[in-house]
Amino acid sequence: MAEATLAGVTVERDDEGFFKNPDDWKEEMAPELAREIGIDPLTEEHWKVIRFMREDFKVKGQVPSIRRMKNEGGISTKELYNLFPKGPAKKAAYIAGLGKPHGCI
Amino acid sequence: MSSDRIEKVSIVISKGSLEGVYPGLIMANGARMEGIDVNLFFTFFGLDAVITKRMDKLKVATVGNPAMHIPTMIGGLPGMSAMATKMMMKEMDKLDIPPVSEFIEMIHDTGAGLYACKATVDMFHLKKEDFCEHMDDIITVGDFYEMSHGGQIIFT
């Protein structure tokens, strides 16, 4: 999966589907990305997570940890696991057009 | 999902030093992040990690650990363990690794099960009230094996 067309735009993605360049991402692409990993529809709660991740990534240059999302983003760990079952950090980063998270926490 | 993927793990935490507890907690949290089912079982001194009064007072062992690279006699001086603990906690915080009580709550909130070993609870004369609210239950070894069915068991 090197290149893919999302919301009419061609973007580069890695073998697992994560964006190679987060700047390619547009909000219109999120619902399609979410469907690819079985999350449909994207609710306002999902968007809260995606927006926090995008904002934090812009400032910090890395995908926020689950702890950071809890303490800085006000998103409880329980809620995060409910919204993005079976791997919340990876799934949320996938939909938010960020690279694969590298942290252990 | 392919069948050769790990679907479930049971992690036993049997030691009560800071460096004895964290690896198990990190592995448990990491497993949940990958969508793996997790049960955590605390036994012997590992129980300190879920005892309300003790969980945030765990210390790094500075004696009898050659990998600390300090002579045992020095490691045994008053305050050495406290100092090593402070330093390690500071480094962990930089990596976003939380203090034990926060970590236990986080792991609980991921949907993992947290259990205390009944034999140890009886041996140390502990009660359910001594444990933090996120510890689900006090269970026997038999219960533990039953619960671990179909998964991998990791002893730390």
From TrEMBL, chain A:
Keywords: Cytoplasm
Compartment(s) of residence: Cytoplasm
GO cellular component: cytoplasm
MF-aspect GO terms: sulfur carrier activity
Active site: 104 (cysteine persulfide intermediate)
A Pfam match: DsrC
Matching Gene3D superfamilies: 3.30.1420.10, DsrC-like protein, C-terminal domain
Gene Ontology BP, a term: tRNA wobble position uridine thiolation
InterPro entries: DsrC-like_C (IPR042072), DsrC-like_dom_sf (IPR025526), DsrC-like_N (IPR043163), DsrC/TusE (IPR007453)
Similarity field: Belongs to the DsrC/TusE family.
The protein's name: TusE/DsrC/DsvC family sulfur relay protein
Organism ancestry: Bacteria, Pseudomonadati, Calditrichota, Calditrichia, Calditrichales
Gene: tusE
From TrEMBL, chain B:
Pfam families per record: DrsE_2 (PF13686)
Ranges in coiled-coil conformation: none
SUPFAM superfamilies hit by this protein: DsrEFH-like
Alphabetical list of Gene3D superfamilies matching this protein: DsrEFH-like
PANTHER family for this protein: CONSERVED WITHIN P. AEROPHILUM, PEROXIREDOXIN FAMILY PROTEIN
Protein name: Peroxiredoxin family protein
Organism: Caldithrix abyssi
Lineage: Bacteria, Pseudomonadati, Calditrichota, Calditrichia, Calditrichales
